[in-house]
Write a structure and sequence with these properties.
By secondary structure, the chain is α+β, with helices and mostly antiparallel strands. The chain has 16 helices and 22 strands. It has a six-stranded mixed β-sheet with strand order 14-13-17-18-20-19. Strands 1-2-7-6 form a four-stranded mixed β-sheet. Strands 5-8-9-10 form a four-stranded antiparallel β-sheet.
């Protein structure tokens, strides 16, 4: 038995099960006493994980009011624990289809005994449970969570649950090409320490299999344990052994995509570490702040070529939502014009591109819900379709142009383009006239640069090409793809007015 100062052998702390920051309220349910029928229905709802939050926790021995625990806690009789846990196992076999078994652990809080039941999202959802436990009740139903309440799924909710959950997501499947030894206990210990789990204190005392089962990253019988794909992605030194091309490629085009030079750096390793290293590399090497002083006020304006918050969301979204069955990397292509994040495949067909562009896209069809669980615990993502709105807000706050989203009809890829905010200086009338005259016929950027006798690309881009584009004196021939190798520049609307007599 554990007291309130000891630990839970679950991926959460005692503080979390009483409404800590790591666990949302809708993932917690409190029961003053043991009510097998009510527990069964909530267990079924957490197993179905309708909102893709990662299941939840049922705390027996704690009353609730408006979804919050009531103190002092009531507790349950210690002598009842053995019977409750046996009944819980029986419910998983006889009152749920397919069979489902949560993890239960007793502990002591303020001298009172409670039982914490961890019910993660099930690997073979949808689950249904008996509506009643009486001998004459033969009705079965699906249950889901709505806010902090367990309800019976009916109508559209039932149809959507069945449609969403007909298969086991790839990240939650067993990997029969791997063994439990392919999961690093050291990586698990670092993760648990970072997220503040009390389970970190038991890493050195638990057997590896027990530790991995507590984390729900392995499965199968004890005599033949298989890692789940999510466990290999987060806790193996090199996940590419099992999922080729699990990597982030960062490519820098100093002269734009049409130039001849580029630099590339590839990031690999456990998913969280790989993502953080790529983001830190981008921040150190390719982000620049501009301080703009105004003559009419004391405060200077500060802005970045690309806001880091937008890049962070874009890259993490790509890692979260890409398919690890497709042998293509997440690619980040950076040029002075823009930063592009490319991943495969594209957004789910339930998402309309016009909704995505304005941050209104909402879906429950997460491709990698277990990956999302771990990223949320590490504070790398919130899930809940908040990534795109965050990107839009970050770009707006920085004074940057709006991001651009691209995919094809078959949704085989997803491309997010963050246009750069480039500091500009006025173009002299003489230089503008030279460019306008030269662009009577469509010209490459390099041709314009050579015509002006310039050799430094960044100066040309900042002081000439960008201001002329913004003023409408010239325009792109392929405006929907600014970095296209076929890009040319010709008179814009303002340029045609000026040169209208020619």
């Amino acid at each position: 038995m554990k007291d309130r100062d000891s630990t839970l052998s679950l991926p959460v702390s005692l503080a979390d099960v009483f409404g800590g920051a790591a666990v949302e309220w809708e993932r917690l349910e409190y029961k003053a006493g043991w009510n097998p029928e009510a527990v069964l229905h909530t267990m079924c709802a957490f197993a179905n994980d309708f909102q893709n939050l990662g299941g939840g926790y049922i705390v027996i021995g704690v009353a609730e009011k408006d979804g919050r625990p009531v103190f002092p806690i009531s507790g349950i009789a210690p002598e009842s624990l053995d019977g409750i846990q046996k009944e819980l196992v029986n419910l998983g076999y006889s009152a749920m289809e397919p069979p489902y078994h949560p993890i239960a652990e007793p502990c002591t809080v303020d001298g009172k005994t409670i039982l914490v039941i961890w019910a993660p999202g099930g690997e073979t959802r949808p689950y249904k449970a008996r509506v009643g436990l009486g001998d004459k009740n033969t009705t079965w139903a699906y249950y889901v969570r709505k806010q902090s309440t367990t309800i019976r799924a009916r109508g559209a909710d039932e149809r959507e649950l069945i449609g969403l959950a007909a298969t086991v997501p790839f990240d939650d499947r067993y990997n029969q090409q791997a063994t439990i030894d392919d999961i690093s206990v050291n990586h698990i210990a670092s993760y648990l320490q970072e997220v503040g789990s009390d389970l970190a204190k038991e890493v050195t005392t638990l057997e590896q299999q027990d530790l991995c089962r507590r984390m729900n990253i392995v499965g199968g019988p004890r005599e033949r344990v298989f890692p789940r794909n999510v466990g290999l992605l987060f806790f193996n030194d090199d996940p590419r052994k099992f999922f080729p091309v699990t990597q982030i490629d960062v490519v820098w085009f100093p002269e734009g995509a049409e130039g001849d030079r580029f630099e590339e750096k590839i990031f690999t390793g456990p998913l969280a570490r790989m993502t953080r290293e790529a983001l830190n590399y981008i921040r150190r090497n390719y982000l620049a702040e501009t301080v703009l002083k105004h003559p009419d006020r004391a405060e200077a304006e500060r802005y970045w070529n690309f806001p880091y918050a937008a890049i962070e969301e874009a890259v993490i979204n790509a890692v979260y939502h890409r398919s690890y069955e497709i042998r293509e990397p997440v690619e980040v292509r950076i040029s002075p014009y823009n930063l592009v994040v490319l991943s495969f495949p594209g957004p789910d067909r339930s998402i309309k591109m016009e909704d995505l562009r304005v941050g209104r896209s909402v879906t429950r069809r997460y491709r990698n819900r277990r990956i999302g669980d771990f990223l949320k615990e590490l504070d790398l993502t919130e899930g809940r379709s908040t990534g795109i709105p965050k990107i839009l807000r970050a770009m707006q706050a920085n004074g940057s142009p709006l991001p651009e989203f691209e995919t094809d009809e078959d949704r085989t890829y997803h491309l997010l383009r963050l246009p750069a905010r480039i500091p500009t200086v006025p173009v002299t009338a003489e230089a503008a006239a030279q460019v306008i005259l030269f662009c009577r016929e469509p010209r490459k950027a390099r041709e314009i640069m050579g015509h002006l006798g310039m050799k430094h690309w960044q100066t040309f881009l900042q002081n000439y090409l960008t201001p002329l584009l913004q003023s409408g004196l010239i325009e792109m021939t392929v405006p929907e793809k600014p970095t296209s190798p076929k890009q040319r520049y010709r008179w814009g609307e303002a340029g045609r007015k000026i040169m209208g007599g020619l």
